[in-house]
């Protein structure tokens, strides 16, 4: 399928006159349409709730849109908890799915009335010592180990993942938690990332539902919810077919009726913690071609770099690129599209066939709405870009300004050199 940007060249020209490139642009209409489709897909389950994975796109303006669709917040750090509180999280609105958790983060999560999802059996004592009690509602993260396969395809390798408790440990954890006064229990697992198949969630659901039935039977712990977490992927490549969220919801419903209902557990709520699926396709990185270089290869240098989007450098991830205004031109030029970092992996594309690029062309780098801006960093003293929201009515709204040198130097503010640096730039 041809990947089309959600913005036109004319719209971009107008946006760029107010907010220079590079910036991440988000599509309000797309975010809303998708959130609505997710809600409908799981409407068969009365307790269903999506807790948006804040780490994917920690922007309050975007998360506020998801709130209108009933979404809560999935947090894993102190600042994500702070952000969620500021956006208006009430008790029960936050799922705290962290690992290797510092004490002060458990304390803040408890103060905000977050549902705490324990990554390890040793965290029971750690949590109790930290907050002085065991919450009435508590969740445990499960890792059955081994490989996670669909038919013969290996989806991921939970046996090699640092997360979650073994089967033996999770039974033991529920017994201990129950003894210590917990009354309502949840089970959580994240066994494969960025799955582009409608089978992942139903397969995961079967693993979790079956273990939930055994846990409730053997420990007497009342399972209130099962959290399927993240992992529903998006088609980064043009030849991939997008997941069908209706089919996924329906697949989970079938397993629910097959496994949980006969066990008398038809009151279990299904939770999700999607990040990529909620935002990924509804964001793009807009950048301008500023240099061309003809050496051993053909290079196009753009004004964004891996500091704005790390996935290609970090994982070799594919992000589709559209040269704006040349959507229908033949892709008869092979380029490496690079950023400016002194780091040879700072390339958005390698040996990519694209239309002939001229200096000043806008390049739209697709699918940066999740794990895009948020993975940004400041290597080489590069600054993080702005974030702009393309509203449903076509207006552009700044939802995060670009960093300035003052932001970069802010952590020297208590030193003499910092005062000098901060005075240098206005
Ligand atoms: C990252 C993460 C998610 C979201 O993952 P996606 O792949 O973006 O859907 C959900 N839950 C937890 C605990 C995570 O760490």
- Which parts are unreliable, with pLDDT below 50 for 5 consecutive residues or more? none
Round the mean pLDDT to the nearest integer and report it. 97
Rg: 23 Å
Query: What's the count of strands?
Result: 19
Characterize the main sheet.
Answer: 9 strands, mixed
Q: What is the count of distinct domains?
A: 2
Strand content: 15-25%
Please name the CATH topology of the largest domain: TIM Barrel
Helix/strand class: alpha/beta
- Give the CATH superfamily of the largest domain: Alanine racemase
Note the total helix count. Answer: 13
Question: Termini, distance in Å?
Answer: 47 Å
Shape: globular
Q: Helical content, roughly? A: 25-40%
CATH level-two architecture of the largest domain: Alpha-Beta Barrel
What would your notes on this structure say?
The protein is α/β, with parallel strands linked by helices and 426 residues long. It has 13 helices and 19 strands. It has helices at residues 9-18, 28-41, 60-67, 78-87, 103-111, 123-131, 167-179, 200-219, 245-260, 276-279, 311-315, 405-409, 416-424, and strands at 23-27, 49-53, 72-75, 94-97, 115-118, 137-141, 148-150, 153-156, 184-188, 223-227, 269-272, 283-294, 298-302, 321-323, 333-338, 347-354, 362-365, 386-390, 396-400. The strands form three sheets. Strands 1, 12, 13, 14, 15, 16, 17, 18 and 19 form a nine-stranded mixed sheet that branches. Strands 2-3-4-5-6-9-10-11 form an eight-stranded parallel β-barrel, surrounded by five helices. The longest helix is centred in the middle third of the chain and has 20 residues, at 200-219. The model has no long low-confidence stretch (mean pLDDT 97). Bound molecules: pyridoxal-5'-phosphate (PLP). Residues 53, 55-56, 74, 76, 97, 190, 193-194, 229-231, 273-277, 370 line the site of pyridoxal-5'-phosphate. Pyridoxal-5'-phosphate binds at residues 53, 55-56, 74, 76, 97, 190, 193-194, 229-231, 273-277, 370.
């Amino acid at each position: 399928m041809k990947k089309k940007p959600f913005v036109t060249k004319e719209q971009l020209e107008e946006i760029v006159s107010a907010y220079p490139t590079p910036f991440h642009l988000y599509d309000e209409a797309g975010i809303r349409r998708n959130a609505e489709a997710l809600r409908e897909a799981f409407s068969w389950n009365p307790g269903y709730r999506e807790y948006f994975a804040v780490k994917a796109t920690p922007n309050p303006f975007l998360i506020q849109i998801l709130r209108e669709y009933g979404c809560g917040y999935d947090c894993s750090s102190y600042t994500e908890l702070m952000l969620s509180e500021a956006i208006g999280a009430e008790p029960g609105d936050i799922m705290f799915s962290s690992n290797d958790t510092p004490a002060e983060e458990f304390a803040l999560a408890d103060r905000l009335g977050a549902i705490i999802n324990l990554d390890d059996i040793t965290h029971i004592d750690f949590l109790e010592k930290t907050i002085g009690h065991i919450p009435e509602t508590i969740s445990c993260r499960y890792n059955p180990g081994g490989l996670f396969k669909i038919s013969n395809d290996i989806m991921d390798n939970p046996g090699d993942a640092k997360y979650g408790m073994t089967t033996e440990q999770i039974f033991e954890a529920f017994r201990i938690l129950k003894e210590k006064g917990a009354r309502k229990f949840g089970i959580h697992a994240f066994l494969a990332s960025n799955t582009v198949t409608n089978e992942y969630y139903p397969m995961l659901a079967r693993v979790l539902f079956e273990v939930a039935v055994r846990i409730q039977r053997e420990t007497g712990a009342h399972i209130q919810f099962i959290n399927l977490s993240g992992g529903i992927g998006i088609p980064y490549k043009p030849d991939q077919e997008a997941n069908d969220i209706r089919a996924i919801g329906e697949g989970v419903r079938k397993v629910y009726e097959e496994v949980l209902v006969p066990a008398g557990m038809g009151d279990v709520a299904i939770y999700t913690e999607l990040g990529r699926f909620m935002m990924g396709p509804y964001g793009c990185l807009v950048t301008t071609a500023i240099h061309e270089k003809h050496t051993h290869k053909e290079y196009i240098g753009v004004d964004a770099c891996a500091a704005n989007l790390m996935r290609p450098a970090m994982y070799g991830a594919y992000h589709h690129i559209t040269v704006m205004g040349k959507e229908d031109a033949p892709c008869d030029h092979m380029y490496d599209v690079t950023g400016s970092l002194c780091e040879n992996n700072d390339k958005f594309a390698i040996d990519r066939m694209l239309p002939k690029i001229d200096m000043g062309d806008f390049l739209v780098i697709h699918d940066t709405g999740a794990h895009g801006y948020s993975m940004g960093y400041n290597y080489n003293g590069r600054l993080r870009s702005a974030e702009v929201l393309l509203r449903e009515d076509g207006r552009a709204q700044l939802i995060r300004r670009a960093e300035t040198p003052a932001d970069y130097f802010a952590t020297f503010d208590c030193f003499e050199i910092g005062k000098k640096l901060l005075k240098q730039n206005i």
